[in-house]
Amino acid sequence: MSFLLRCPHCGERSVYEYRFGGEVKQRPPLDAPEEEWANYRYYCADAAGVQTEWWFHRDGCRQWLQAVRNTVSNEVVETILAGKTAGAR
Amino acid sequence: MKIFFGKREVEARPGDTIAAALYRSGQRIFSRSFKYHRPRGLVCAAGKCPNCMMNVDGVPNVRTCITPVIDGMKVKGQNAFPSLEHDGLSATQYLDRLMPVGWYYKIFTSRTAWHAVEPFIRRMAGLGEPPAVAAGEYEHGWLHCDVAIVGAGYAGMTAALEASERGSKVTLIDDQSEPGGQLLYRKRSRSGADGLIERLKARSEIRVLQGSYCFGLYEGNLLGVVQPAQRPGTAERLLHVRAGHVVVATGAYETPLVFPNNDLPGVMLATAAQRLMHLFGLQPGRRAVIIGADEDRVGELRDDFREKGTEVVAVVSIEDVVGATGGSEVTGLRCRNRKFSCDLIVVCGPRVPDAGLIAQAGGKLEWNQLQGAFVPTALPHNVSVVGDAAGETISAAFPPPAAGKRSFVCFCSDVSSKDLCDGVAEGFDHIETLKRYTTSTMGPCQGRMCQLMTIGICAQETGRSIADTGVTTSRPPNPSVTLGALAGNSHHPVRRTPLHDAHEELGAVWLDMGDWKRPRYYRTAVATPEKESVQGEYWAVRERAGLIDVSTLGKLDVRGSDAGRLLDKVYTHHFSDLRPGRARYALMCDEAGVILDDGTISRLGDDRYFVTTTTGNLDFVYQWLEWHLAETSWDVRVTNVTGGFGAMNIAGPKARDVLKKLTDCDLSPTAFPYMACRQAEVSGARSLLLRVGFVGETGWEVHCPAEAAEFVWGELLEAGREFGIRPFGIEAQRLLRLEKRHLIVGVDTDALSTPYEADMGWAVKLDKQDFTGKAALAKFASAPPRERLVGFALPGTNVPEDGCAVVVDGKLAGRVTSSRYSPVKQMAIGLAWVRPEKAREGASIGIRQSGRLVPASVTLRPFYDPEGTRLRT
User: What pLDDT is recorded for position B394?
Assistant: First the structure.
């Protein structure tokens, strides 16, 4: 694994500069059934294809970003600065 | 220039490689073969085959044919007992009937027998000895360019010049010492190549890496390149080359033909003979026989030999060859009707496109019957292939390999054509299984000398076409790489606190905690045993005053109008209602309710908090806070200020008296109560004072600017001298906190520990609207615990080790996480996870200690000062 990931702040960098933070998931509401919480905590979709993921630019700007990555080819379709969007988590 | 070859001194000329200098001195045997210890000489002279590998200045398996001579080099043969010329183990070749292909699988069917002989086999077979010490500091480097070109032959140089002239930043990587490739040693190789080398050299914008080989092409156009040593005292350098576009211009290489005794020294590839003549001015032999059919090629060789005064005895075709003759060197070639006497057999072998990089990077190679070669047909993204590597000028007829037990296909591990035929006959008829069974193509040459012939034999024996037989999977490294180069330098980063030198002077004995160095304890005299030092430090804290460096604590400055909101969200307690000037214990859980970290949070102002984390979790906590902020528009800024502050904890009944001497801050219990914080000057240094009590005594954490820390530390020790203050280390601190039953996250807790089970339920506030872990914690609050973290005590001085099993009624019922001898209780104490029914005052449990079961009693209260009056005083 040695693909490049474009950081919205720092530009294209080696994936080894980043920490992988898992798939982007929607946090269930507090009163959601236990099963939904278990899914959120312990399971991932693990798609063979394009998925949106959290990445932390550890050796760069030290910010979280989201990358839309094809898990088969490691092609990074898009990177977005996760933030300042209204999404609740 | 001189090099030392064994005991012999060998003269070398500028521009010589090691092998060239040795060849000029008359050396013909360069190595002994892997299995049969047969003498081997130069075959490719281009760094592609295993035959010239020697030990150079302690480094094993150096390809001497492409390694330039340095004056005074010490060169030794390998895998020869006692010497390359006279190797007693060459007798093993006459035992070949006992050692058929895969013989160790067939003979040593019992494990005992295999273990008995394995060491001998290992000693007898193989390559060089691993060095005891590194040849120097191996280095890593990084390089970025628009276009990286591998191979500086005609095609590579042309591509480099074109790309550079179009304005691209170009790196050209070549494994020889001069650019030019075939142009340097083949006069008829190209028209229109005049002046190309000069033009390349004149174009300084192109970065040319000579003597550097590329061993892998990875995802994202990352090239692994090994450069020779760059500075005295260093060894090879591994360059991580990242290129926008990669051009593979690795050319083609010639491969040997298979006939009996084709491995004798003196049998070499035509390109090897040309290299020796034109690169080093050598005469490869006096009487040569050429095996080859291509008239142009033979004519070219005839011209070369005429110029060097080598007589061409005969030109024969491979179909007529019966075998080479000779003992340690070739003396003749036997053909069907004739016999020639010669000292050199020059083989015009099939030329193979060097497309290994393409194949391992995910490209496709396909058999082209017309060209007689596997040529790249599909290329990875942003990779192109030019010249011979693309199969441009290749047109080799594929000669049928003759079967024979002395007809070697794989020089690396002595695999003959008979071995391959036997392998197929035994059922290994797929090219991949045949490769693994016979180890052909798996040696240091990585299949470059033997792949084509192995495929040819497999095809012939199975009756399939070459296209259907296919090619073995290419994987990096190609070619073999020094392990030291991959490992890089041995530097491990170390973090030192601002008080490091002060500890050193005080006789600190160090403990590594992650990257940090922390004093384990201080030796008061050289011979003081650890136990005595720790006891001394312990009593100083309990009876007088102690001072410990806690600079390694993670420190985060969290500010902004939503700072409290963020801390409420990620920690289990309330923080937005914390009054400025107050501090609170902080516990962090994940969504599963598992404890992640703990520390203290002090509110310095309306919009400003000071957060401490455990030493090892700083990076994690920082990232955790940032992650929780990522999708919000909250006004919070988290800054890691760990390195900016030195921190020390002064604790003990006399701590107040000591600190009072250095600050104007009112330290009285009413003005500065337990869990309060103040910003004040200590010895003139602007500091943050936190009244906390990890060790269970009156005490303050003093956080001051890192540059002032050493001074403040010295001042505190000086001020405390009249009270008998002592610096204390981690060991005393761990004992002191254990007496208070304070847990350490990650030591007493693990990846399943929840606050309720760890007796920390008081730090979780379920009345908060929402926070990380609330859903899970709300469940745990009412559910019966699976286990509980309790204190235990047992009489005597025998302390159970951390991790000892807790046994109840003969069954495993928990584990010890921490234990020490308590000087104040005068018994062994500790923390242990036990079944919930045992989590009551005075319950008895058993602890298994060095094979014996020792009774212990459970306690839920601190062992020392259970009411906490001392730390509140």
Answer: 64
User: Which pair of tokens denotes residue B693?
Assistant: 């009590």
Identify which of A1, A32, A63 has the shortest CB distance to residue B626.
A63
How does residue B80 score in pLDDT terms, banded at 50, 70 and 90? confident
Cα distances (angstroms) measured from residue B860 to each of B324, B531, B763, B792: 88, 28, 17, 8
- Beta-carbon separation of B630 and A4 below 8 A: no
A contacts of B630 (beta carbons < 8 Å): 54, 63-64, 82-83
**Which residue in chain A has the smallest CA separation from B629?**
A83
The answer to whether residue A76 sits within a structural domain is yes
In the stretch 200-229 of chain B, residues with CB closer than 8 A to chain A read 218-220, 222
Q: Residue A83 is nearest to which of B220, B630, B779, comparing CB atoms? A: B630
| Alpha carbons B829 and B823: distance in angstroms, whole number | 10
| Phi/psi at B72 (5° precision) | 90, 5
Q: What is the pLDDT at residue B191?
A: 67
A44 located within any domain: no
Could you read off the pLDDT of B572-611 as tens digits, one per residue? Answer: 999 999 999 999 999 999 999 999 999 999 999 999 999 9
- Res B398 pLDDT > 70: no
Higher pLDDT pick, B558 / B92: B558
Is B631–A83 a contact, with Cβ atoms under 8 angstroms apart? yes
Pairing of strands B827-834, B788-794: antiparallel
CB B687 within 8 Å of CB B712: yes
Q: Under 8 Å CB-to-CB from B183, ≥6 apart: which residues?
A: B153, B154, B189, B190, B193, B196, B197
E strands, B652-776, where? 677-682, 685-690, 699-705, 726-727
Alpha-carbon distance A24 to nearest alpha carbon in chain B (angstroms): 11
Number of domains in chain A: 1
**Per-residue pLDDT reduced to its tens digit, B659-687:** 999 999 999 999 999 999 999 999 999 99
| Model pLDDT for residues B124-154, shown as the tens digit of each residue | 877 888 888 887 889 999 999 999 999 999 9
Query: What is the rounded CA–CA span in Å between residue B333 and residue B325?
Result: 6
Residue A88, min C-alpha distance to chain B (Å): 7
For every one of its 89 residues, what pLDDT tens digit does chain A have, with 9 covering 90 and above?
A: 899 999 999 999 999 999 999 999 999 999 999 999 999 999 999 999 999 999 999 999 999 999 999 999 999 999 998 764 433 33
| Domain range B134-254+351-398, CATH architecture | 3-Layer(bba) Sandwich (3.50)
For residue A3, the distance in angstroms to the closest alpha carbon of chain B comes to 5
- Contact between chains at A32 and B775 (C-beta distance less than 8 A): yes
Q: Give domain status of residue A43, yes or no.
A: no
DSSP B216-246: EEETTTEEEEEEPP-STTEEEEEEEEEEEEE
Domain that holds residue A69: 1-27+49-89
Q: B258-348: which CATH architecture?
A: 3-Layer(bba) Sandwich (3.50)
Per-residue pLDDT of B297-313, as tens digits, reads: 999 999 999 999 999 99
B779 touches chain A (CB under 8 A): yes
Contacts 24+ apart (CB under 8 A), B837-843: B838/B788, B838/B790, B838/B808, B838/B813, B838/B814, B839/B785, B839/B788, B839/B790
CB atoms within 10 A of CB B204: 8
User: What integer is the mean pLDDT of B826-839?
Assistant: 95
B622 touches chain A (CB under 8 A): yes
Q: Taking an 8 Å Cβ-Cβ cutoff, which residues of chain A contact chain B?
A: 1-4, 14-15, 19, 21, 27-28, 30, 32, 34, 37, 40-42, 54, 56, 58, 62-64, 74, 82-89
Angle at Cα A82 formed by Cα A79 and Cα A87, nearest 5°? 130
- Return the CATH number of the domain spanning residue range B400-481: 1.10.10.1100
ipTM for the assembly: 0.94
Q: What is the largest CA-CA distance in chain B?
A: 115
